[in-house]
Amino acid sequence: MSVTGKKLAAWFALSRPPFHSVGVLPFVLGNVLAWRMAGLFRWAVGGWGTLGVVLVMLATYYAGEYWDYAEDALSGQFGRSRFAGGSGVLQGELLPRRAALWGSLVSMAFALGVALVLWLGYGTGPWTVPFAVLGLLGGFFYSTRPVRWVSTGVGELWIAFCYGWLPVAVGYYLQVGEIAPLVHWVSIPIGLTIFNVILLNEFPDYRADSATGKTNLAVRLGRERAAWLYGAVSGASWAGVGYSVSRGVPLRAMWFYLPILLLSLVLVVLMIGGRWRERQVLERLCATNLVVNLGTTAVYILAFVS
Q: What CATH number has the domain bearing residue 156?
């Protein structure tokens, strides 16, 4: 492979495209809700909005790669995970560390540019730019010092908000110019499941995070208590789906949700049973946990388009 090809491959890995789905899919849901509930949908707005969501996530992921360099390097020594410990691109010296910081800043600038295009060019409403700023505030500063939400005890809540309510609400708002009450109810289970994604992804990094003073929830609580928190949040997400149906989501959503519910139940049993102590099992738990989050969002999409 040529030098240019290697650099492009490194940037691709640093960008972690598989994890963009957790932000893009809720945004798509917001657009679907706008189409089905308000009869409004503009492809250009949806396209620009999707680009903006991706740019916010790139700003977040690149900043995390830069500021979490030490703990990611240590985590790699303890054992690599597909769901934690960063991409390994900077530690492998495939790109200079500063490239991640500059990539984050450039992505942030472009995200704000997209927000301005939507607001001024497509008349998407006065909250367009503030919503973009809010997403960047939660994402960029998740790992960035001196704010570093991840070490304050509220980082996981920021992620639940930024990957739960925010993309669904923004997807709807950009198309309609307001936010329907049902948006709030469908976003709650999505936010709770992404909270659990972040919480469980902290388990493989526990030793490295503890050693470097990265005081996320798993470190603060210890993995045994964090596993019980995982179970409680899962239970709240199940209740949230049921309540959203009572608030106006089509009843057929419950049939689509059944396999996701069963997966989630299995995860809770395994987590509380302590199977996270087994490295290979933990890797599969993280993968299945991501399916639960994406599946919860997909359930709502299917319920409204079928």
A: 1.10.600
